[in-house]
Amino acid sequence: MNKPAVLATRAVFPDVIARLEQHFDVQSNQDDRSWTESELIAAAQGKAALFTTPSERVSAALIGAAPSLKAVCNMAVGYNNIDVDAATRAGIIVTNTPDVLTETTADFAWALMLATARRVTESEHWLRAGKWQKWRYDTLLGVDVHGTTLGIIGMGRIGQAIARRAMGFNMRVIYHNRSRLAPELEAESHRAEYRDKAALLREADHVVLTLPYSPQSHHSIGAAELALMKPTATLVNIARGGIVDDAALVDALQARRIAAAGLDVFENEPALHPGFLALSNVVLTPHIGSATEATRRAMANLAADNLIAALTGGTPPNILNPQVLARG
Ligand code: GLV
């Protein structure tokens, strides 16, 4: 019997491809070409499943043009690149990779927050440029992190993991979320206190965004929201591009309406708003929140577990649209 055909849309760990090859006839994009939508549609023809990353858009058009698809398995916790409603209507299972990246991504939020507040990358650029001639009392002064107020917008698993780390920095934690957490989860999240978004932005010394991208969260941090923040505050985005209005953030950073920002995600990544590159008060990283060897391997293997289960009659551990299975 022919093995079902599977497409890995981007390069992935070779041993994970080898795992998939035990079950399926795998076409993989190990050259890591960035396919256009029509190239992706062409490659998806006859495939039973796609192994995707956040860079590929799995649109309603693609779903409509690939009737052989039974599953789309994303190697990411976020899945705004996939039209889940269209997939569900077409009876296609969609999965993501939560949990395995929570702690690593929370570590990275802290890395960005500390680098932003203490001007770490700016200091290194300054030093490498040969500008360090002598110690001065006012060289590269930043803002404190310890003992300040951390504001987290989006209090899911990653937000809570960021909050737990605030204990060691003796910080107060406030948060905003679509719904308030249960009291025991607030207690575990370093006694986080709920605030509406405007109050959080006014009160926090360091704001971290960890909410999912959706049409509702599009530009949820724009000029009006940035204007509420303290002039000494920092903003960190490890969530998704598009949550922040990048043009408004460039303006706010240029005018020093906020002190600094740390950004791992961008509106049109990998393209950046050119304004960011000209600014010294922004730390820029290329969407590496979950990028440790152990975590990226765990994500790739979990996406493979989901895909294998989806095509072999099992229940994928991270199915996002279980109604597809219920329909039989
Ligand atoms: C990465 O951005 C993810 O959503 O896992």
Structure report:
It contains 14 helices and 12 strands. It has 328 residues and is of the alpha/beta class. The protein has 2 domains: 5-100 and 293-326, Rossmann fold, CATH 3.40.50.720; 102-284, Rossmann fold (3-Layer(aba) Sandwich), CATH 3.40.50. A 7-stranded parallel β-sheet has the order 8-7-6-9-10-11-12, with helices on both faces. β10 (234-237), α11 (246-254) and β11 (260-263) form a beta-alpha-beta unit. Bound molecules: glyoxylic acid.
Strand element count:
12
Determine the N-to-C terminus distance.
Answer: 23 Å
Report on the biggest sheet. Answer: 7 strands, parallel
The small molecules bound here are: glyoxylic acid
Mean pLDDT metric: 97
- The helix/strand class is alpha/beta
Q: What is the total number of structural domains?
A: 2
Name given to the CATH homologous superfamily of the largest domain: NAD(P)-binding Rossmann-like Domain
**What is the third-level CATH name, the topology of the largest domain?**
Rossmann fold
From N to C, what is the helix and strand string? EHEHEHEHEHHEHEHEHEHEHEHEHH
**Residues in helices, as a percent range:** 25-40%
Strand content: 5-15%
Question: What ranges have pLDDT less than 50 throughout 5 or more consecutive residues?
Answer: none
> Order of strands in the sheet with the most strands?
8-7-6-9-10-11-12
CATH architecture designation of the largest domain: 3-Layer(aba) Sandwich
Number of helices: 14
What general outline do the C-alpha atoms trace?
A: globular
The CATH class name of the largest domain reads Alpha Beta
Radius of gyration: 21 Å
